[in-house]
Amino acid sequence: MVGLPLLMPVYSNLQSMQVMYLGRYWRDIVWVSSFYIRYFITFGPFYGIFGTVLLIYLVKFLESPWIACVTQMSHIPMKMSREENRDWLSTQVVMKFLGEDPSKHNDLESGYLQ
What we know:
Layout: H1 3-6, H2 8-22, H3 26-75, H4 88-97, H5 104-110
């Protein structure tokens, strides 16, 4: 039960590579390959192959909850007390720049400081 969430980055990467290969997205395959080649050239001498793979998945495991939290909190609509018929852009401007955002946690998570 605990191992399954830890294997999600492995599954996601394999799924992405399969989609790129079957869809013949050669440019994407080159970019992804160049990322991993550069990653192994940079960190391989310090950590070895196993340590570098472990580092890749550790970083993905740590960043995934943060990215999910930031993207979900910024996409969940919040009920506003006045002028509820605004368009999306106006709502975002009012909430972020005029201080009507009740969620300071989202500001901290996303790096927005007032």
